[in-house]
Design goal:
Helices cover 38% and strands 0% of the residues. It is mainly α and 58 residues long. The radius of gyration is 18 Å and the shape is elongated.
């Protein structure tokens, strides 16, 4: 591991235990961002018929 790797959230030096993050706090914040669609990719809205067909399959 490169000792100068930085946490992608706060830019502090990362630790092996929480790599690539520096702490459990940053690791948890990143997870919450994923769960809250913070990393979503913008795109055109899906057509309602496609959404309905996908839900019928479940």
């Amino acid at each position: 591991m490169n000792n100068k790797e930085k946490c992608p959230l706060c830019k502090k030096i990362s630790t092996p235990q929480f790599r690539p993050f520096c702490s459990a706090g940053c690791k948890d914040r990143d997870l919450l961002k994923w769960l809250g669609d913070g990393y979503r990719v913008a795109g055109p809205p899906a057509e309602e018929a496609i959404i309905k067909n996908n839900n019928d399959d479940v």
